[in-house]
Amino acid sequence: MIPLLAFNDNGIYCEQANVYLDPWKPVKNAIITHGHADHSRWGHQNYMTHISNVPIIKHRLGDINVTGKEWNESFTINNVKFSLHPAGHIIGSSQIRVEYKGEVWVFTGDYKTEDDGVSVPYEVVKCNTFITECTFGLPAFKWTPQAEVMCNINNWWAENKADKKTSILFGYSLGKAQRLLKHLDANIGTIYTHGAIENMTNIIRPMVELPPTTLITRETKKEDLLGNIVLAPPSAHGSTWIRKMTPFVTGTASGWMAFRGARRRRAIDKGFVLSDHCDWFALLESIKATGAEKIICTHGYTEVFSRYLRELGYDARTEKTQYEGELTENEKVADSEII
């Protein structure tokens, strides 16, 4: 029997509807979970995604043919019923529910269960088969609550200000940057931004209330930055753009900062463990809540995680994809270096 969703060279395919979910090669019809580059790629003829993700992928992909859907809005293609549900990963991120002849599959894309105050919180969707990421699918990954991490970041900024140094904080231009911005204490000083982050934040501002920011331009003097904080993408680290800001202190917000040595290898002064993905415990809780009997593990520690699920009694297996989790701009390091 042909499965409702199958993995092939182009992506995750629903043959009955002739639709792909987050395909990595150009196809005719694509349903997109969110705006990160490994899940929303250029070249598809028709895009469908959540309405709040439309301006984001248009900004990233240019002139595309895209249709926006609301949360829980059902749409049927050749008798297959689809709907989008909040994934909590970044703003506009969706899980895709697929139903045909009483069988329900859910593709999560990327997701997290902690409410970040920016994206619509994760929603449990009951299903028979659950396709889950496991970017951080090792028991050593257990996240500290966001409020505590952001308190540490704001204290770090305040200490750097007292030392008359600029704080440079690295995070993805889409998702992580807006999450950090939402919870930075603007009473400490001015929040400056790299152009990539400023441009993406301006796309998102109509959807989320965020503190004011100041774009760094050629006219910005390093004296203007002293004591203030700069949000920049990881790709800016080590660039001439950064070197002109001395004296500064650097920090990175990423789940990979839970690895011993990751901060040192990337020549970062301070690491903050803050991820837009589930930790080990949230992954297990999410899977249990769906009621699914079959679990398909993609991108991340798939072998370890699926083996553990089988020990718990699930019908679990792995599938290869071209999704990268948080690896796009952050390195993955050896298991022996986990804290």
TrEMBL record:
Annotated InterPro entries: MBL, RibonucZ/Hydroxyglut_hydro, Xnuc_lig_assoc
A GO term, aspect molecular function: RNA endonuclease activity
Protein name (database record): Putative mRNA 3-end processing factor
Organism: Mariniflexile fucanivorans
